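Q: Predict the assembly, please.
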Amino acid sequence: MLELENLEVSYGAIQALHGISLAVEPGRIVTLIGANGAGKSTTLRAISGLVKPRGGAIRFNGKNIAGLPAHQIVQLGLSHVPEGRMVFANLTVQENLLLGAYLRHDKAGIRRDMEQVFKIFPRLQERLQQAAGTLSGGEQQMLAIGRALMSQPRFLMMDEPSLGIAPLLVKTIFEKIVEINRTRGLTILLVEQNANLALEISHYGYVLETGKIILQADSATLRADPQVRSAYLGG
Amino acid sequence: MTEFLQQLINGLALGAIYALIALGYTMVYGILRFINFAHGDVFMLGAFAGLFFTPVVERVFPPQSYSGGLVVLLLAMAVCAGLGILIEMLAYRPLRNRPKLTVLITAIGVSLFIEYTCQHRLVFGAAPRKFPDLIPVKTWNVDLLVISSTQVIVFVTTLLLLVILRFIVQKTRMGTAMRAVSFNEQAAALMGVNINSIISFTFGLGSALAAAGGILFAMSYASIDPLMGVQTGLKAFVAAVVGGIGNLPGAALGGLLIGVIETFAGGIPGLSNYRDGIAFTILIAVLIFRPTGLLSKPQVEKV
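A: Predicted assembly structure:
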């Protein structure tokens, strides 16, 4: 469904990605793990068009989307839940969700999908008219995911959904990620520092180190790999 | 008491015009985080558009009629909306990823370019022009108060435009996208918002309001010239900062406040010579005691 081929990204003179190649099959949860600065977020940002790749290809359903502006990439069915959630704090929860459906014009469908989001995250319905900035970190993450679902994506990217969130809510959110993947068949590319958690819910994993993929395997295999265990899973 | 009320009315009429211009400064700042110093010149161009459209409109509508005046206003707003969008596309868009200072200096350049091009004798010429009466000139006396039809039109037009603007920003899809871009451009792009079209929309909206301000100003003071946007634009910019830059109700409040205070100062013997300095005195006071402006809210990041 999504293929990266030799993806290279630079920030000025600093090269962040040195030729990343990976593939995500439809219906799966694939994770990128790695230390801070390994290039996980940059990979997602390149796919969603927030940074322009310097080289390589990004193929989504066979079409090269490398270099397209972000708003056109959303239209193709890729949605990105960015690191740090980036909810619109000055807007209400409802306005945030409607912005997720910015490119859609089917009012009935938008309403139906909003109901779906409330089924996954009932908390959001309770806070519908509240400014998103008044939500807790965990609730903001729910909103960011709900907002991304409102565009009816076929492919969902999530960047550090556990970052800065109370442990209890992290568990809930990861359960919801699995639920979204299972019930909707939505393909997910997950970036996560908490490698334990990420490998637990994913089917396949890539390990990134300083802009390169150094290891890839089924998540279960990676969890058993001594190198991965010592470097990313705390022994 | 009568004099107080009279000055208040005069001040509010002036302040309403500042408010209309200030909204454009603050909207553009909200989206792009830079001050469009050419905005005052769009205000001037609005007045001149009115000057040139009036004889054309008077061929169809009766001269000095409310309907004709409205058509002139709408035409000037439309032309300036287009000009605002054009200025952004030609001057600022190529600098989108450059430091804000580059854009700011470019804005000053655009402003000077418009001012001095318009002073050329083949354009508008440097001499002040008389602005025609767009509407029936009347005055009403209430007790000892004098209210002119122009003042009434200034209030009604400003109020209507503020209501329409509020509706656009708060209730429409474009307005919601504007607020989203203003909060976080990248996140808005991830929603599918085309940032460039929102920026164009914002420039168009702000420039249309400035044009309305230009027409109302020209109706109130009857004389227009290519440099009329310099001082008025600067004061409107001050109004936007006083209200809290990026904050729409703040810009409206700041405009009214500066108009009223300036008018009162003009009526005090000994202070009247300092009338034009008042706005900047207020600016200094606000920057010292409430640097983020009167209506700004502190932003807190939640974890």
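The longest helix of chain B spans residues 2-32. The longest strand of chain B covers residues 139-142.
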